[in-house]
Design goal:
The chain is an alpha/beta fold. It has helices spanning 3-19, 21-37, 54-61, 73-84, 124-131, 153-157, 161-170, 188-197, 222-236, and strands at residues 44-48, 65-70, 93-97, 110-116, 135-146, 174-176, 182-184, 200-202, 206-208, 247-254. Bound molecules: S-adenosylmethionine.
Amino acid sequence: MDALTGFASVGAAYSAHSLSARGRLRHDLVARRLLAELPARPARVLDVGCGDGEMTLRLAAAGHHVTGVDPSAEMLRAAARRLSARPDLAPRIRLLEAGIDGRPFERERFDAVCCHGVLMHLDAADAIGRVAGLVARGGVLSILTENRAAIGFREALRGEYRAARGLIEQGAAASRGNLGLQTRGDTAEALDELAAGHGLSPLPWQGVRIFHDHHVDWTPDPEEYAQALQTEWAASTRDPYRQLGRLVHTVARHGAERRRTP
Ligand SMILES: C[S@@+](CC[C@H](N)C(=O)[O-])C[C@H]1O[C@@H](n2cnc3c(N)ncnc32)[C@H](O)[C@@H]1O
């Protein structure tokens, strides 16, 4: 099953996951970092594999101009439905049906190119090669994908010891993701190296969903959620915690020196 076929069948499940506390945690962490890297002025953002449009809508709500692209008509329809509930954002959002290899935006350059939750379904070197050149000078490439370094951690915390041991002992790249699809992880270091190979300067990376990844039916009250979010944020930049995130968020800038902290 390729990524696209897989998503056609799990779109609704993805949207439900995305809106759960566990799903929201990752969007909150990633948006916080991304907004800190974007200029205060309205920026041009490309959201590759935008899915049901969570980050597209968030960034547009922050004043940026966002092009969301996804090859799945079903996911795009879900994004369009959400957008119809926010007509104030419509002037700043463009939704296009295209994959990472489609080029409706070939001549454009963006202050941020996001590729979140997509690389785990694709070849990382190929995917980064396709998007790195779309970053404008001074802009950032933001990648969120599964963390290969922590393979088996989720399974072990859930008590699925046999599966965990197999993954850990093999140092496997692939495991089963939230939606039951087979997904593939990358290390932050490998992703940074790929970005650097395209002339981008890696900034500090973050681990995402370190302590809450296995909290499948988590329904925190607002105060608990706020505390959890702050704790995840504090750990996200620090070793050894960040190495155990289910996801890694790497950010690389076109035309910048490495920086120490986000
Ligand atoms: C897990 S969802 C992530 C959605 C969104 N970026 C997010 O972070 O919430 C993965 C998305 O990647 C899309 N996708 C699958 N193959 C793709 C490709 N070749 N190029 C771009 N997007 C792709 C799927 O249609 C799906 O909407």
